[in-house]
Amino acid sequence: MLNSYEAKCSRLLINLLLQALAKRDPIRRQVLRVKGCLAGSKAEGLLEQGDMILAINKEPITCFHDIENACQELDISEGNDDGLQMTIFRQGKEIDLAVETDIRDGMGTIRMVNWCGSVIQDPHPAVRALGFLPEEGHGVYVARWCHGSPVHRYGLYALQWIVEVNGKLTPDLETFIQVVTGLEHGEFVRVRTVSLNGKPRVLTLKQDLHYWPTWELRFEPESAVWRRRTIKELDPSKGGDVLQCMEGVSEVIIDYNSGTRHHIQKTNGRDNS
């Protein structure tokens, strides 16, 4: 008897919702459904795949433009720290949720590190759209690798996260740089990775700073310039001693607008162009 009553209420609720949505947009007569959430986003733990979005802030939602308007109103409003007040339909029930929004600049990848011949960066939106991040945190993502490099020889390929280096967690790119800066030339490095399907793996590789120095490439949106900075390499002028470029920084500046390249060698704060 209880199941019959719940089914009757559910049908009545659905009819009322359909009438409100049809009145909002009588031509298209559609409803938006959640396909997935970006991994690590604030909506990930609240919205589920298959949820139908009925209303935001008590206003019926029938198209992407309605959601965009609601987000813009949230940006200009003051004192609304609870996010979007969403009404969804899940498994025959109407549910009210407060979903906070995330800021996305749309710039894409603006920073990467080349370490042992692998291109390391923060997980980009296309990866996060898969809906998975390692349990240890965001990690740093291996986007590409070079033939003949240490990562090629020892099997550290692309499409996986590096979550630990020599037992030290690498939750973000800045932490990863700090960890690998302390590694010496010829040192065997233990790396723990997690693949896209969540499978963990531990491998060891030998660092080669002679042919594969550690360097960083960063984009500056204000000046539209890419800057290449050497982090650690062997100094051939000193018989192969390790040169950790912190005070003496070697930079290659690429002007995105004109396409020109400038090499700058900084020594003790002075530029030798």
TrEMBL record:
**So which domain of life are we looking at?**
Eukaryota
Provide the GO biological process annotations: proteolysis
User: Which molecular-function annotations from GO does this UniProt entry contain?
Assistant: peptidase activity
Arranged from A to Z, the UniProt key words for this protein are: Hydrolase, Protease
**A Pfam family for this UniProt protein?**
PDZ_1
Which stretch is the leader sequence?
none
Domain called PDZ-like: residue spans: 110-183
Q: What InterPro entries does its record include?
A: PDZ-like_dom (IPR025926), PDZ_sf (IPR036034)
Asked if Translocase is a keyword of the record, the answer is no
Q: What is this protein called?
A: Protease Do-like 7
